[in-house]
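Practice set, problem 2.
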Amino acid sequence: MRMGNPNLKENPLKRALALPFRGFLKTFFPITYVKLQYKYITHHTLHLKNPVRYTEKLQYLRVYTYPKNKEVSRLASRDGLREYAHELGLDEYLVPIYGIYRTFDEIPWDNLPSSFVMKCTHASGMNAIIDNKDSVDKKALRKKFKKWLKTDYGKKTMERHYSRIKPQIIIEKKLDEEGHLPIEYKIHVFNGVAKSLYVVTGRGQDIRYTNFYIDWTRFDGSQFNGWKSSDVPIEKPKNFDTMILVAEKLAKPFPFVRVDLYEINGKIYISEMTFTPAKGTLILDDDRCDFEMGAWLDISKEVKKK
């Protein structure tokens, strides 16, 4: 029997009552905060002493393991990932960059091409896609990046491995696929083995997230947070086997990591590594998939270290 989602709609009253205490709990009772957050979002009780669900094990890694791992912090940063890929001999898969800068005002705007992508190295979602630099409101953009660079993303999201990362701005080549933002392949690697992925299509237009097992059969039950899957079939990329090898090579030392990749005109690009996707607070379409993926993830060595 298919198990339905918990109610995706937030309770405005509960949220309003909790807001004044959120900062206090994050600072003085971080584990309590994470347990309450997990319960509020997923409607499940978080068991950290004996985690079984995939989302529970992600919470364990989030609060106990990854904040202590300096290598996780390095690879969660966009510049650190580039260093790591170079060390593994994977330079051919790196997105070309135009520079890395400590502040917005250091950027040599006149030397940049017309289009590019600006990203903060220390956070997720703090990005700007520049289609034409001559039409950009640089004053507004400066203000935005100044705020982002001052943000302790790890403290904000309680993913403390981000807090170690030096805030900088990395400027990358803008990747296009027939005039549109490219399809992204987010491969989930469990204890060094790629087991599943989801494919992001229609970014910037009608975004869709479609889940697959690693053999490219549909994994619809792992669809999460009410996101919609594609209405049309998605073809497996030409170099998918190589993408898996790249993802597994990058992820080998870690219990779990999601490796994001592109394939454009037959060429593979590494996008980023995400160690605790959506903070681990995922609401899966079929609750049984939480246990299925939980069985894939062995964190027994991490539990023994604690």
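Problem 2, part (b): a different protein.
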Amino acid sequence: ATAFERVPALAEHLRATGVKGVFINGTTGEGLCQSLPERMAGAEAWAKAKGDLHAILNLGAQSQADMVALAEHAAGLDLDGVAVVAPSFHRPRSVEDLVEMVLPVADAAGKPLWLYHIPALTHVGLDGIEVCQRLLQRCPTFAGVKFTVADLLQLQAMLEAAADGGWQVAWGCDELMLPALA
């Protein structure tokens, strides 16, 4: 038996407890620790089981070629969006580097694209607002950012920029949820 056989039961549990969405292959490292075939099998399992859950699939990988392969696979699945996290080994050194890395992935997926901005784990210290603004200009499918920065002033600045720019922000620091709501 594979872990993916448990996805339908997990999806049903999430729906029954009021959860509205899932971020597949996110920050617990499950995506980056799996092979491409495992990631594709997991994406297929979630796409089949998600029902009315809003499902975003993280395509982040250490190589752009792997991200594009995952994006091409995701294009044929019933998912509500895809996300890209910057590689943490050969890191983009500028906003333009990151945007150029993301564009072919977004094109291959053909779904709403989310930037997964988590500099504490990627060690990519680029300005998240600037990256989002450039993606908004250059990527027709850009939808938003999963913003995982443990600085409430940066969160406020991102929320204001998103309101002006027309993209969405998902907050990724669960441990700071109460102060962030304030």
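Answer key, part (b): The two ends are 44 Å apart (CA to CA). Helices lie at 7-16, 36-49, 64-75, 95-109, 119-122, 128-138, 152-165, 177-181.
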